[in-house]
Amino acid sequence: TYSNYTNQSNSIFIIQPSIELNKWNSSIKVGVNPSFTTKEFSLYPVIQYVKKLIDTNYLLVANWQTILTNNNYASLSLMNPWIAVPTTLKITTQEKKEFTLFINASKNLQYNFGLSLNDYRNIPFFNRINNVNKSQFFGLQFQPIFEYRAITLEFVAALRYQLSDQLFVKTNAKYIQFNSIKENTNAWGILPLNLNGELSWYPNKKWSIDGGMQYWSGASFENEAGKVYDLNKALVLNASFNYKLTKHLKAWAKGENLLDKKYQRWAEYPSLGVQLIAGIVYSFHK
Hints:
This protein is mostly beta strands.
Protein backbone atom coordinates (compact mmCIF):
# COMPACT_ATOMS: atom_id res chain seq x y z
CA THR A 1 0.00 0.00 0.00
CA TYR A 2 1.33 3.49 -0.92
CA SER A 3 -0.05 6.94 -0.10
CA ASN A 4 0.62 10.39 -1.57
CA TYR A 5 0.20 13.82 -0.02
CA THR A 6 -3.55 13.79 -0.74
CA ASN A 7 -3.84 10.76 1.57
CA GLN A 8 -4.85 8.59 -1.38
CA SER A 9 -3.84 4.95 -0.99
CA ASN A 10 -3.82 1.97 -3.35
CA SER A 11 -3.43 -1.68 -2.47
CA ILE A 12 -2.96 -4.89 -4.46
CA PHE A 13 -3.51 -8.45 -3.26
CA ILE A 14 -2.94 -11.28 -5.76
CA ILE A 15 -3.37 -15.06 -5.53
CA GLN A 16 -1.59 -17.16 -8.19
CA PRO A 17 -2.94 -20.75 -8.37
CA SER A 18 -1.92 -22.76 -11.45
CA ILE A 19 -1.53 -26.26 -12.89
CA GLU A 20 1.64 -27.29 -14.74
CA LEU A 21 2.17 -30.22 -17.11
CA ASN A 22 5.65 -31.29 -18.23
CA LYS A 23 5.80 -33.68 -21.18
CA TRP A 24 7.33 -34.08 -24.68
CA ASN A 25 10.17 -31.63 -24.00
CA SER A 26 7.62 -28.96 -23.22
CA SER A 27 5.84 -27.37 -20.29
CA ILE A 28 2.31 -26.01 -20.10
CA LYS A 29 1.10 -23.90 -17.18
CA VAL A 30 -2.51 -22.78 -16.87
CA GLY A 31 -3.99 -20.77 -14.05
CA VAL A 32 -5.89 -17.70 -12.94
CA ASN A 33 -4.87 -14.68 -10.90
CA PRO A 34 -7.64 -13.44 -8.60
CA SER A 35 -6.59 -9.85 -7.90
CA PHE A 36 -8.00 -7.53 -5.27
CA THR A 37 -7.20 -3.83 -5.61
CA THR A 38 -8.47 -0.80 -3.72
CA LYS A 39 -11.51 -0.34 -5.95
CA GLU A 40 -12.22 -3.65 -7.67
CA PHE A 41 -11.81 -7.39 -7.98
CA SER A 42 -10.50 -8.92 -11.21
CA LEU A 43 -9.76 -12.40 -12.49
CA TYR A 44 -6.86 -12.65 -14.95
CA PRO A 45 -5.87 -15.71 -16.99
CA VAL A 46 -2.32 -17.09 -16.88
CA ILE A 47 -1.11 -19.31 -19.72
CA GLN A 48 2.52 -20.26 -20.38
CA TYR A 49 3.92 -22.66 -22.96
CA VAL A 50 7.62 -23.58 -22.99
CA LYS A 51 9.02 -25.83 -25.73
CA LYS A 52 12.58 -26.96 -26.41
CA LEU A 53 12.84 -27.50 -30.15
CA ILE A 54 14.14 -30.96 -31.03
CA ASP A 55 17.82 -31.26 -32.05
CA THR A 56 18.42 -27.56 -31.44
CA ASN A 57 19.46 -25.21 -28.66
CA TYR A 58 16.30 -23.18 -29.18
CA LEU A 59 13.79 -22.60 -26.40
CA LEU A 60 10.41 -21.12 -27.31
CA VAL A 61 8.37 -19.41 -24.59
CA ALA A 62 4.80 -18.13 -25.08
CA ASN A 63 3.11 -16.18 -22.29
CA TRP A 64 -0.25 -14.62 -21.56
CA GLN A 65 -0.22 -12.80 -18.25
CA THR A 66 -1.36 -9.62 -16.55
CA ILE A 67 1.07 -7.47 -14.56
CA LEU A 68 -0.17 -5.01 -11.91
CA THR A 69 2.04 -2.12 -10.79
CA ASN A 70 1.24 -0.07 -7.70
CA ASN A 71 2.64 3.33 -8.66
CA ASN A 72 3.95 5.70 -6.01
CA TYR A 73 5.97 8.92 -5.92
CA ALA A 74 9.27 7.06 -5.48
CA SER A 75 8.72 4.65 -8.38
CA LEU A 76 7.58 7.45 -10.69
CA SER A 77 10.64 9.51 -9.70
CA LEU A 78 12.89 6.65 -10.81
CA MET A 79 11.35 6.94 -14.28
CA ASN A 80 11.54 10.75 -14.33
CA PRO A 81 13.43 12.59 -11.55
CA TRP A 82 11.90 15.95 -12.53
CA ILE A 83 8.24 15.21 -11.74
CA ALA A 84 5.99 17.31 -9.55
CA VAL A 85 4.26 15.62 -6.63
CA PRO A 86 1.47 13.52 -8.20
CA THR A 87 -2.06 14.76 -7.58
CA THR A 88 -3.35 11.22 -8.03
CA LEU A 89 -1.92 7.70 -7.99
CA LYS A 90 -3.28 4.83 -10.04
CA ILE A 91 -2.52 1.14 -10.46
CA THR A 92 -1.11 0.22 -13.88
CA THR A 93 -2.49 -2.95 -15.47
CA GLN A 94 -0.53 -4.55 -18.31
CA GLU A 95 -2.10 -7.48 -20.16
CA LYS A 96 0.83 -9.03 -21.99
CA LYS A 97 0.80 -11.65 -24.75
CA GLU A 98 4.33 -12.50 -25.83
CA PHE A 99 6.52 -14.92 -27.78
CA THR A 100 10.21 -15.17 -26.93
CA LEU A 101 12.90 -17.32 -28.52
CA PHE A 102 16.01 -18.13 -26.46
CA ILE A 103 19.04 -19.41 -28.38
CA ASN A 104 22.08 -20.96 -26.72
CA ALA A 105 24.35 -20.85 -29.76
CA SER A 106 27.50 -21.97 -27.92
CA LYS A 107 29.19 -21.92 -24.56
CA ASN A 108 30.18 -18.32 -25.25
CA LEU A 109 27.15 -16.93 -27.06
CA GLN A 110 23.53 -16.68 -25.90
CA TYR A 111 20.84 -14.40 -27.25
CA ASN A 112 17.08 -14.01 -27.32
CA PHE A 113 14.41 -11.90 -28.94
CA GLY A 114 10.71 -11.53 -28.39
CA LEU A 115 7.55 -9.81 -29.57
CA SER A 116 4.63 -8.84 -27.36
CA LEU A 117 1.18 -7.29 -27.68
CA ASN A 118 0.31 -5.22 -24.62
CA ASP A 119 -2.94 -3.72 -23.40
CA TYR A 120 -2.16 -1.07 -20.76
CA ARG A 121 -4.59 0.57 -18.36
CA ASN A 122 -3.29 3.64 -16.49
CA ILE A 123 0.20 3.57 -17.99
CA PRO A 124 2.15 6.63 -16.74
CA PHE A 125 3.18 9.28 -19.29
CA PHE A 126 5.19 12.40 -18.43
CA ASN A 127 4.48 15.78 -20.03
CA ARG A 128 5.91 19.13 -19.03
CA ILE A 129 3.84 21.49 -16.88
CA ASN A 130 3.08 24.63 -18.88
CA ASN A 131 1.35 27.93 -18.04
CA VAL A 132 2.46 27.75 -14.42
CA ASN A 133 4.59 30.31 -12.59
CA LYS A 134 7.95 28.53 -12.42
CA SER A 135 8.93 30.43 -9.28
CA GLN A 136 6.81 27.87 -7.43
CA PHE A 137 9.26 25.16 -8.51
CA PHE A 138 12.96 24.67 -8.78
CA GLY A 139 12.73 24.90 -12.57
CA LEU A 140 10.58 23.05 -15.08
CA GLN A 141 8.69 20.02 -13.81
CA PHE A 142 6.70 17.21 -15.38
CA GLN A 143 3.25 15.97 -14.50
CA PRO A 144 2.60 12.21 -14.36
CA ILE A 145 -0.38 11.46 -16.60
CA PHE A 146 -2.10 8.10 -16.26
CA GLU A 147 -3.37 7.16 -19.73
CA TYR A 148 -6.72 5.37 -19.47
CA ARG A 149 -5.85 2.78 -22.13
CA ALA A 150 -3.02 2.20 -24.58
CA ILE A 151 -2.21 -0.75 -26.84
CA THR A 152 1.39 -1.35 -27.85
CA LEU A 153 3.50 -3.68 -29.94
CA GLU A 154 6.90 -4.21 -28.33
CA PHE A 155 10.08 -5.90 -29.55
CA VAL A 156 12.92 -6.83 -27.20
CA ALA A 157 16.28 -8.48 -27.81
CA ALA A 158 19.33 -9.34 -25.71
CA LEU A 159 22.75 -10.84 -26.35
CA ARG A 160 25.61 -12.05 -24.16
CA TYR A 161 28.98 -12.97 -25.64
CA GLN A 162 31.99 -14.19 -23.70
CA LEU A 163 35.16 -13.56 -25.70
CA SER A 164 37.36 -15.07 -22.97
CA ASP A 165 37.38 -15.72 -19.25
CA GLN A 166 38.19 -12.04 -18.74
CA LEU A 167 36.12 -10.31 -21.43
CA PHE A 168 32.31 -10.13 -21.68
CA VAL A 169 29.89 -8.23 -23.91
CA LYS A 170 26.19 -7.72 -23.16
CA THR A 171 23.61 -5.82 -25.21
CA ASN A 172 19.86 -5.32 -25.08
CA ALA A 173 17.32 -3.44 -27.15
CA LYS A 174 13.68 -2.41 -26.81
CA TYR A 175 11.33 -0.91 -29.37
CA ILE A 176 7.79 0.15 -28.47
CA GLN A 177 5.08 1.18 -30.93
CA PHE A 178 1.82 2.67 -29.67
CA ASN A 179 -0.97 1.41 -31.91
CA SER A 180 -3.76 3.01 -29.88
CA ILE A 181 -3.94 5.72 -27.20
CA LYS A 182 -7.40 6.44 -25.77
CA GLU A 183 -7.07 9.92 -24.23
CA ASN A 184 -3.68 11.50 -24.95
CA THR A 185 -2.47 12.53 -28.40
CA ASN A 186 1.05 11.16 -27.80
CA ALA A 187 2.91 8.81 -25.47
CA TRP A 188 4.51 11.68 -23.56
CA GLY A 189 8.04 10.97 -22.32
CA ILE A 190 8.25 7.37 -23.58
CA LEU A 191 11.33 6.37 -25.61
CA PRO A 192 10.32 4.58 -28.84
CA LEU A 193 13.76 2.92 -29.18
CA ASN A 194 16.31 2.20 -26.47
CA LEU A 195 19.63 0.36 -26.98
CA ASN A 196 22.20 -0.50 -24.31
CA GLY A 197 25.59 -2.18 -24.49
CA GLU A 198 28.13 -3.18 -21.83
CA LEU A 199 31.74 -4.34 -22.09
CA SER A 200 33.43 -5.84 -19.01
CA TRP A 201 37.14 -6.68 -18.91
CA TYR A 202 39.01 -8.27 -16.00
CA PRO A 203 42.73 -8.25 -16.98
CA ASN A 204 43.76 -9.68 -13.60
CA LYS A 205 42.56 -9.96 -10.03
CA LYS A 206 43.31 -6.29 -9.34
CA TRP A 207 41.77 -4.62 -12.37
CA SER A 208 38.20 -4.41 -13.65
CA ILE A 209 37.34 -2.15 -16.58
CA ASP A 210 33.82 -1.45 -17.86
CA GLY A 211 32.48 0.39 -20.86
CA GLY A 212 28.92 1.30 -21.69
CA MET A 213 26.89 2.62 -24.62
CA GLN A 214 23.36 4.02 -24.66
CA TYR A 215 21.36 5.05 -27.69
CA TRP A 216 17.76 6.21 -27.76
CA SER A 217 15.33 8.00 -30.04
CA GLY A 218 13.80 11.15 -28.61
CA ALA A 219 10.55 11.20 -26.65
CA SER A 220 7.58 13.47 -27.43
CA PHE A 221 6.64 16.54 -25.37
CA GLU A 222 4.62 19.76 -25.65
CA ASN A 223 6.31 23.16 -25.60
CA GLU A 224 4.95 26.25 -23.84
CA ALA A 225 2.68 26.99 -26.81
CA GLY A 226 1.21 23.48 -26.69
CA LYS A 227 2.97 22.37 -29.88
CA VAL A 228 4.18 18.76 -30.02
CA TYR A 229 7.87 18.13 -30.69
CA ASP A 230 10.34 15.26 -30.35
CA LEU A 231 13.73 15.46 -28.68
CA ASN A 232 16.81 14.58 -30.72
CA LYS A 233 18.30 11.11 -30.79
CA ALA A 234 21.20 10.54 -28.41
CA LEU A 235 24.33 8.39 -28.22
CA VAL A 236 26.15 8.31 -24.88
CA LEU A 237 29.41 6.50 -24.07
CA ASN A 238 30.55 5.78 -20.51
CA ALA A 239 33.57 4.02 -18.97
CA SER A 240 34.82 3.12 -15.51
CA PHE A 241 37.51 1.12 -13.74
CA ASN A 242 38.28 -0.35 -10.33
CA TYR A 243 41.80 -1.11 -9.08
CA LYS A 244 42.62 -2.98 -5.90
CA LEU A 245 45.49 -1.09 -4.23
CA THR A 246 45.75 -3.23 -1.11
CA LYS A 247 43.72 -5.79 0.75
CA HIS A 248 41.46 -3.02 2.08
CA LEU A 249 41.89 -0.14 -0.40
CA LYS A 250 40.31 0.15 -3.83
CA ALA A 251 40.55 3.07 -6.27
CA TRP A 252 37.85 3.78 -8.83
CA ALA A 253 37.02 6.29 -11.54
CA LYS A 254 34.08 6.84 -13.86
CA GLY A 255 33.57 8.96 -16.95
CA GLU A 256 30.21 9.76 -18.56
CA ASN A 257 29.29 11.37 -21.89
CA LEU A 258 32.79 10.69 -23.24
CA LEU A 259 31.78 11.93 -26.70
CA ASP A 260 31.23 15.36 -25.12
CA LYS A 261 27.90 15.87 -26.88
CA LYS A 262 24.84 17.70 -25.60
CA TYR A 263 21.84 15.43 -25.14
CA GLN A 264 18.46 15.46 -23.39
CA ARG A 265 16.50 12.59 -21.96
CA TRP A 266 13.89 14.99 -20.55
CA ALA A 267 12.93 18.29 -22.17
CA GLU A 268 14.87 21.36 -20.98
CA TYR A 269 17.31 19.27 -18.92
CA PRO A 270 20.40 18.91 -21.14
CA SER A 271 23.53 17.04 -20.15
CA LEU A 272 26.58 19.16 -20.96
CA GLY A 273 30.22 18.14 -21.19
CA VAL A 274 32.20 15.14 -20.02
CA GLN A 275 31.57 14.14 -16.41
CA LEU A 276 34.46 12.59 -14.45
CA ILE A 277 34.37 11.34 -10.87
CA ALA A 278 36.85 9.24 -8.88
CA GLY A 279 37.42 8.02 -5.37
CA ILE A 280 38.97 5.54 -2.98
CA VAL A 281 37.06 2.92 -1.01
CA TYR A 282 38.33 1.48 2.26
CA SER A 283 36.85 -1.86 3.29
CA PHE A 284 37.02 -2.86 6.96
CA HIS A 285 36.07 -6.48 6.45
CA LYS A 286 38.54 -9.08 5.25
